[in-house]
Amino acid sequence: MNFKKITQTLFFCFFFFSLSIFAQKLSYTVGFEAPHTHYCEVEVRVTGNNKDFLDFKLPVWAPGSYLVREFAKNVEQEQATDGDGKALKFGKTSKSVWRVQTKGVKEVVFRYKVYAYEHSVRTSFIDASHGYLNGTSVFTYVEGLQNQPLTLTVKPHKDWKKISTGMSSINNDPFQLEAPNYDVFVDSPLEIGNQKIYDFKAAGIPHKISMYGEGNYNEQTLTSDVAKIVEASTSIFGENPCKDYTFIVHNVHQGGGGLEHLNSTSLIRQRWGYNTKGGYLGWLGLVAHEYFHLWNVKRLRPEPLGPFDYQNENYTRQLWISEGFTSYYTHKILRKAGFNEDSEFIQNVQDDISYHENSQGSRVQSVAESSFDAWIKGYRPNENSSNSTISYYGSGSRMGAILDLIVINGSDAQYSLDDVMKEMYLEYYKKQNRPFTEVEFRKMVEKFAKTDLTEFFDKHIYGTAKLDYGKYLGYAGLSFNEFPNRGTALGASLSEEGGKLMIKALNKAEAGYLSGLNVNDEIIGVDGFRMSNSLLRSYLETKRPNDKISVLLSRDFKIQTLEVALTVPSSYTYSISQGALRPNEKQEKVYRKWTGM
Ligand SMILES: [Zn+2]
User: Fold this and answer.
1) Ligand 1 centroid distance, CA of 325 (Å)
2) Which end of the chain has fewer CB atoms within 10 angstroms, the N or the C?
3) CA 187–ligand 1 middle distance (angstroms)
4) The pLDDT of residue 597
């Protein structure tokens, strides 16, 4: 072909290619005809189809919550038609995939109903008063069209007037929404009902707090305190990438939690929990945690958390950074925003250390393993979990505090962990726009700490070696103290159920476990006396380590006696205090940088 022909051919190829891209349209509709039945009606419409079949797939998990939840279990009454309503053949090819035989028709409509009655930040919930939808549990994607821009029409129940979501509206119609792709679509939960909405501006960005349910919060302080958290968080990264941000809050009798999204978050709080100091700090801490996520995990992502595989587990060894550091930054942001003093910040770090060191699981599971196995261990705890696992939240938060001290000390108080997080965000999100690897993270910490941390990571991130807390806290002139707890230990978590005293968990380093008690044993009596939980506690106070007690128990309804040799408690009391000596100039600088922010 000559040059002219090649150009012509290329032009027509491009022309038809463009046509085929732009001709395809993807639109979703969700309705709430009878919300008291907890169902919503979903429609997915593809126009400009040119395939013989289309696969409609529902995710099995919600990003940010690392558990396969099998959302397809709530889908029913599926239908597939062409644009004229003529039925198309379809069937499931796996637990969460529906294949529609389109035979090339231009318009394909897939409809189904979703039962939504699980109230959590990761699932969807609909009742007469409101609808809360988490995209991955409701909306299927169309294989091959995940990157296609799409629209969503929300048809609210007739009594519902408001909608809150991070998605953009079309033509100022709040119930007509659009997203550039499926990832953004399902990363924008929807709250539809008659919630109260409070607007405020912080870090130069419009924010909304959408409050479902009554609560004893004060409207004025609510927005001004959340604004302080927004400002303190933004100051760490130097910029806020959101055009707007929405807090969706559910005030309920029981429950709690939060889930991060691209430019929104969902929070569940106890409705009367705002008016005590602890309750209010808990609320602000939750806000700080989820807000910090808009950088750490929503944009600064560890490999392979993005692009997501919605059909399978997405394994990463770095949740101790994504979640653990976010928990550490919860402490830092509360301090930076002025809600906590130095002493409270240090107390929070002390609590994280105590949690880690007093968990038997910290001897057998590293923070990297805890991250990787979140799917089968962290999110699926059983009676042995405290003996075999640790939480990447608390243990990772503790690691954040220590690495912060290492960076501040190594840089002579020039840098802190803030600089590591900011540079990671600028380099891997802004500049390279890709997830970071484990080695890249270590190298970034090393750059600011001006020291090689290969051995530290091998021992304490990928291994379970105990940290020398005294050494690192000593950088800030603080001393670390540990004392074994006194008394005797049976090491059994007990609960009274229907008049029976049942063993729910056993500490593997204490008496009950070592002598052969089992979880699910019923303790009928000890040394000839009937026992309740409190009676047994009082009775054990009269005993000394190595004393023996005779336990009458029922195991699978078979009565038996077991001799248990009491042990000392395996737990320690850990505390951080001002050092005995006056701190030197460098220690003072490190302390100020660490706590003074
Ligand atoms: Zn989190």
Assistant:
1) 9
2) N
3) 15
4) 60
* Alpha-carbon gap, residue 325 to 593, rounded angstroms: 17
- Reported residue count of the chain is 597
CA of residue 297 to ligand 1 center, whole Å = 9
Domain boundary among 410, 441, 476: 476
**Domain co-membership, 311 together with 416:** yes
Specify the DSSP class assigned to residue 136.
G
* Residues 439 and 539 grouped into a single domain: no
- According to DSSP, the β-strands at 245-252 and 205-212 are parallel
Q: What's the pTM value of the predicted model, to 2 decimals?
A: 0.94
Q: Both 518 and 442 in a single domain?
A: no
Asked which of 194, 229, 248 is the last residue of a domain, the reply is 194
Domain that holds residue 376: 295-476
Chain segment 346-386, per-residue pLDDT in tens: 999 999 999 999 999 999 999 999 999 999 999 999 999 99
| Same domain, yes or no: 442 and 526 | no
> 259 CA distance to ligand 1 centroid (A)?
7
CA of residue 219 to ligand 1 center, whole Å: 25
Q: Which chain residues have CB less than 5 Å from ligand 1, an ion?
A: 323, 326
What distance in angstroms lies between residue 34's CA and the mean position of ligand 1's atoms?
34
483, part of any domain: no
Task: Kindly state whether residues 65 and 129 are assigned to the same domain.
Answer: yes
H helix intervals, 412-556? 417-424, 438-449, 454-460, 469-474, 511-515, 533-541
pLDDT at 14: 45
- The answer to whether residue 113 sits within a structural domain is yes
CA of 18 to the centre of ligand 1 (A): 41
> Would you say residue 576 lies in a domain?
no
Q: How many folded domains does the chain comprise?
A: 3
Q: What is the whole-number distance in angstroms between the Cα of residue 535 and the centre of ligand 1?
A: 39
Instruction: Give the confidence band of 581 by pLDDT, cuts at 50, 70, 90.
Output: confident
Q: Are 101 and 52 in contact (CB under 8 A)?
A: yes
Q: Which amino acid is at 525?
A: G
Q: Picking from 13-17, 131-135, 242-246, 519-523, which range would have the lowest pLDDT averaged per residue?
A: 13-17
Note whether 466 and 556 are same-domain residues. Answer: no
C-alpha span between 14 and 21 (Å, rounded) = 10
Distance of CA 45 from the midpoint of ligand 1 (Å): 34
